[in-house]
């Protein structure tokens, strides 16, 4: 503190926290079997950049989920049409998919995820992993995922998640494959009700997610 520090010795600090990606999902089941599946979002970074001092949060900019210009992509690369254009008293198309599933009239699964345009893909594949492929909840969440959203006309994959034989087979069928670094395909948090009525949580390793019981 008693002398000047040379600029050559001054550099950036180390960031030890992870900044949120604007969308959050949580799945909850209580001891009486009541279930909650909730997805909430700011959409883009800091949402609309408008903050309410009185309420204590930022307002989202989910108007981007409308097609402000039909035929042009939004911030997630989704291309909308006139059907999703902006109009009074109209709700925009949204990918958010908080889901509660019953089986034979009883609670079976609670699932959801952040991930922009990859949300529906992630939720569906997680459900199928359990129901069709008999995976545990955590196995279903961990399983590699792929995503296609019509435009751009390409399939993206979890990094190193699929064999070269699978990728080659898809190319032969005419699929356009994108193996470049892509945004994470979902960060699923889910709960499965087991046959003995106990609960199994699945928390996505792709984020800082956690499954806990009390």
Radius of gyration: 21 Å
- H-E order: EEEEEEHHEEHEEE
Overall shape: it is globular
What gap, in angstroms, lies between the N and C termini?
49 Å
Please, what is the oligomeric state? single chain
The average pLDDT score comes to: 91
Share of residues in helices: 10-25%
Q: Work out the strand percent.
A: 15-25%
Low-confidence stretches: none
* Helix count, DSSP H or I runs of 4 or more residues: 3
Largest sheet: 4 strands, antiparallel
Number of strands: 11
SS class? alpha+beta
Strand order of the main beta sheet, please? 5-6-10-11
Characterization of this structure:
- With 214 residues, the chain is α+β, with helices and mostly antiparallel strands.
- Helices cover 13% and strands 22% of the residues.
- The chain has helices at residues 119-131, 137-142, 164-172, and strands at residues 23-29, 35-41, 51-52, 57-58, 99-103, 106-112, 146-147, 155-157, 177-178, 189-193, 199-203.
- The mean pLDDT is 91.
């Amino acid at each position: 503190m008693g002398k000047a520090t040379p600029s050559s010795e001054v550099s950036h600090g180390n960031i030890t926290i992870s900044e949120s990606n604007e969308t959050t999902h949580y799945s909850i089941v209580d001891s009486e079997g009541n279930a909650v599946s909730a997805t909430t979002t700011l959409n883009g970074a800091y949402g609309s950049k408008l903050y309410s001092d009185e309420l204590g949060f930022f307002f989202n900019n989910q108007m981007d989920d409308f097609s402000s210009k039909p035929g042009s992509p939004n911030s997630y690369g989704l291309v909308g049409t006139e059907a999703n254009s902006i109009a009074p008293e109209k709700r925009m198309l949204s990918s958010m998919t908080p889901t509660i599933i019953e089986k034979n009239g009883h609670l079976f699964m609670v699932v959801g995820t952040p991930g922009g345009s990859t949300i529906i893909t992630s939720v569906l594949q997680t459900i199928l992993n359990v129901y069709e492929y008999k995976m545990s909840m955590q196995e279903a969440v961990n399983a590699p995922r792929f995503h296609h959203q019509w435009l751009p006309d390409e399939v993206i994959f979890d990094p190193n998640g699929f064999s070269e034989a699978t990728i080659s087979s898809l190319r032969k069928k005419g699929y356009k494959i994108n193996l470049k670094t892509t945004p994470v395909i979902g960060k699923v948090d889910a709960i499965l009700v087991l046959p003995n009525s106990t609960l199994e949580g699945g928390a996505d390793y792709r984020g800082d997610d956690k499954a806990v019981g009390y």
